[in-house]
Amino acid sequence: MKNSFSITLGVVVTSAIMFSCKQEVSGSGDAAPVETMTSGNLTLYVDTTAQPIIEDALAVFHSIYPKARIKQVNRAESEVVNALIKDSANVAVLARPLTTQEEAHFTKQGITPRVTFFATDALALITNKKSTDTVVNLQEVYKVLQGKPSATVKKLIFDNSNSGTVQLLLKQAGVTKIATTDVYSLKDTEAVLKYVHENPGSIGIIGVNWLVQPPLGWEKYVENVRVLGVDNVKIDKSSKKYYKPSQSNIAAGLYPITRKLYVLNYQGKNGLGIGFETYLTAESGQRLILKSGLVPATMPTREIEVRSEL
User: Fold this and answer.
1) Mean pLDDT throughout 117-133?
2) What average pLDDT does the structure give for the chain?
3) Which of 119, 192, 205, 304 could form a disulfide with 294 if both were Cys (CB 3.0 to 4.6 A apart)?
4) Domains in the chain, start-ordered, CATH in brackets?
5) In degrees rounded to 5, what are phi and psi of residue 237?
């Protein structure tokens, strides 16, 4: 279960969803509803780093559309991709589109994907509060990933060797395999938080959304870790400025470890995948993302009423 927080959402009004609502077939008992954009059954595979925000979004989506039954399955990035290729899933949430090679399976079937960007996420570098460090140079992190000794980074802790978190940093570091020394992959995000909580001097790497919305029981871990500031040599070659993964820094491109989140839809029909995607990208869904600590794809509008007093 996740920490609850108050969210005021309006009704999602889009022509696609209104059209699908008219097509819903009313059922009785436990019979599965006919699949439309707002009803039916769907298994949604989700990269674990995006787990918190999708859980929140599905809770609201289900409250608006009670005939929709979307089952969320959280897996590491490579497992989500394999599920799509093996047809175990046809809708997923990932931090990247599929590659041309990965999409070949669907190309042969004549299926054109719907790939929809809905939010920008960031990877947070965390350490124990007992550590005196408040910032870290990204190049030192890259050295460890490359198997080179670092003067400041002694131990990197990831959530899973197959996760998108690992793949993103490996790509940035210019390597394809994890170094065999000073880099450790654990079971999941909770294990990373617990390890950093118990081991000062280590640096954990997790999705920032987990820190903003930690599940119940994680508070003691989150309260005992510090988010490190990270330099961005692309905008400051002197490396004298450090940025934390705040929404403003992510949106402005100041924080250097960010990634986009997408809904990948390979259903090949107007089903629940399009319905949920439409909700996420509509204003109410984007407001939910804004409150989650991530950066929405489109900034929700805010109306201000100006009153003149005579």
Assistant:
1) 94
2) 86
3) 119
4) 15-120+260-296 (3.40.190.10), 121-258 (3.40.190.10)
5) -65, -20
